[in-house]
Amino acid sequence: MAGHRHDAKDQQLEHDRTDSTEPLTTDTGVRVEDTDNSLRAGARGPTLLEDFHTREKITHFDHERIPERVVHARGAGAYGRFTPYEGLGDLTAAHFLSSSDVTTPVFVRFSTVAGSRGSADTPRDVRGFAVKFYTEQGNYDLVGNNMPVFFIQDGIKFPDFVHALKPQPHNEIPQAQSAHDTLWDFVGMQPETMHMMMWLMSDRAIPRSYRMMQGFGVHTFRFVNAEGRGTFVKFHWKPLLGTHSLVWDEAQRVQGKDPDFNRRDLWDSIERGEHPEWELGVQLVDEADEHAFDFDLLDPTKLVPEEQVPVRPIGRLVLDRNPDNFFAETEQVAFHTANVVPGIDFTNDPLLQARNFSYLDTQLLRLGGPNFQQIPVNRPVAPVSNNQRDGFAQHRVHRGGTSYAQNSLGGGCPVTAGEGVFRHYTERVAGEKIRERSASFGDHYSQATLFYNSLADWEREHLLEAFRFELGKCEELSVRQKVVAHLNHVDHGLAVEVAEGVGVAAPDTEETPNHGRSSPALSQDNSATGDITGRQIALLAADGVDASDAEALRARFAEEHAHVEYLGTRDGALHTRDGGVLTANRSMKTVGSVVYDAVIVVGGPDSVAELGKDGLARHFVTEAFKHHKAVLLAADGRRIVEGTPLAGRFPGAAETTRTTEGVVLAPAVDDESVAEFLRIVKSHRHWDRETSSVPA
Ligand code: HDD
């Protein structure tokens, strides 16, 4: 297993790992001689009740399942480490942020929200980004998402929101999809959802990879330093690989070609030693500036524009070790927003307050009782010492005769400490007991507009298409109409275009004028970092392929930690043009262009002629083109487009390398054409390409 071992958490887990190398036994350790035949009365007779091995084996199997998470059921996780760039003692008493010499083990779980545990990885959905820091002062959980705001302002609505989002109760349709009447009915009834719906309809909802997602703590939290001074803080995770997405048509197809697309990508990258990294950043707001914004810092449907409060980078997260067992670790990991350490505290955000109840509550059901913190993945590396006792599956053997405080008989143990303790932030609160929301939470549209204004043209185009797709799936025209009415407060032009796409009346007049403000940091457009680690590039090949060209490309991309895979018209050995052999990594039949980032076709003539006869190969190139991917057609490879819907699109194949619509056409695989193709791959996708007419 690749990865970084021997941090404090890893050492602790070592005691729990088991390899089943001993001969087969029952759960009580009794050796078993035969596990294929139950004990019967005669070879053809009934099975006997006294066959404890059969009964135990089947009973255990019958009890293997636990309730899946009510939301975020589908996920993937990994271990890693977090190191701050510098000590932040002036801001927070948190030890794990106290010095660049402190490295803290972490477990991170990424997830989709709506789908069941067995659903696909690439629906249009929010992605969870939950980080458990095993700090020396106890576990700290930062349970965030890949979008910086949330659907609702008060946790009391969460059950309603989730009921609306999840499959409908009478027929459990649709699975893992927001495109249905009940969600959009909820949205129509709750304008506070509009800002988040803009994010959900943007490409953020279909990340290319967990490694290429931003993460956000969403709420405003509070740093508290040793003197008890508080500072408001918003948390941001920024991926070193940039923030990149799939396109919607591709995302839908990936669900069939590889439902484990994001999970596999995370796993494989860690196994290959290409460890995903994020930078943690914070936006800090002095308490004195609490009311300096035109929104409420306690409102989780709002973000703090980075142009107003810059993000200060404070540390680095690296994921470097896959779990040993999915169920034991990724399934049983229990996050909880109230798992905080000294130096980090809450605010009165009503969504956060509800979460602080919900997460503990859900783990009690999901993990079967109050001892879930003793499950290996959840166990802190900090010592645990208290009078909590008993309960189902108690694993500790507490010694001594006293389990209460205060006691004198047990020497007063465990005593309360004076130092390193969690002290709740001293905040003066006063108010009527009242079910009412602050008027400062009342603006539901301005930031939705801000987000819309901040997008690049292609992002806006995708967002429009997403609204049309989703609302177009709603059966009730009244639902479509209501959402359009809300969009008219966000941007009139958008509302009209959505309405036209989904067959409802477009609003005649502008409801709320677009304020024209934007925040460039909200766009994914400029996020490419040039780091293409882990990108998958398909090279299509048949008998007669120019092996030296293929190998040159593979070698060059390997330098960038990107992977050129040879996809053959069949699996195994291909005869090369120069009489050698090139081994295909896979047969084209087992994959599809949608699981690759770019595609290459090189010569020689026989290989290209054979590929040209193969519908799959022609479709592969056309589909990659449709999904805006980088394409290199070199030497005879340029002829692959003949007989595809792309024929005639690149007239006059020139004698020099040239790029048309993100397709590199080159007379040869040489330094120039490879460099040009690399440049195109690094830009992630070529958006200035008209693809709506391409049938693929
Ligand atoms: Fe939640 C899981 C993120 C609001 C109640 N949530 C869960 C997970 C993530 C989030 C990443 C998966 C954790 C894991 O991998 O195990 N949730 C968020 C964010 C929110 C949010 C960023 C808003 C800012 N959640 C939210 C509210 C409530 C919940 C308002 C309830 C009042 N969330 C839950 C839960 C889950 C959960 C029911 C399901 C499984 C679990 O907790 O462990 O308690």
UniProtKB/TrEMBL annotation:
It is an enzyme of class 1 (oxidoreductase). PROSITE patterns: CATALASE_1 (PS00437), CATALASE_2 (PS00438), CATALASE_3 (PS51402). Residues 25-413 form the Catalase core domain. The keyword Zinc does not apply. It comes from Nocardiopsis kunsanensis. It catalyses: 2 H2O2 = O2 + 2 H2O. Keywords: Heme, Hydrogen peroxide, Iron, Metal-binding, Oxidoreductase, Peroxidase. GO terms for cellular component: cytosol. Belongs to the catalase family. HPII subfamily. The active site is at residues 72, 145. Decomposes hydrogen peroxide into water and oxygen; serves to protect cells from the toxic effects of hydrogen peroxide. Residues 515-528 have a biased composition (Polar residues). Its EC number is 1.11.1.6. Heme binds at residues 69, 109, 158, 355, 359, 366. InterPro entries: Catalase, Catalase_AS, Catalase_clade2, Catalase_clade2_helical, Catalase_core, Catalase_haem_BS, Catalase_immune_responsive, Catalase_large_C. Its cofactor is heme. There is a cross-link at residues 336-359 (3'-histidyl-3-tyrosine (His-Tyr)). GO terms for molecular function: catalase activity; heme binding; metal ion binding. The keyword Heme applies. GO terms for biological process: hydrogen peroxide catabolic process; response to oxidative stress. Residues 1-46, 506-528 are annotated as: Disordered. Residues 1-20 have a biased composition (Basic and acidic residues). This is Catalase.
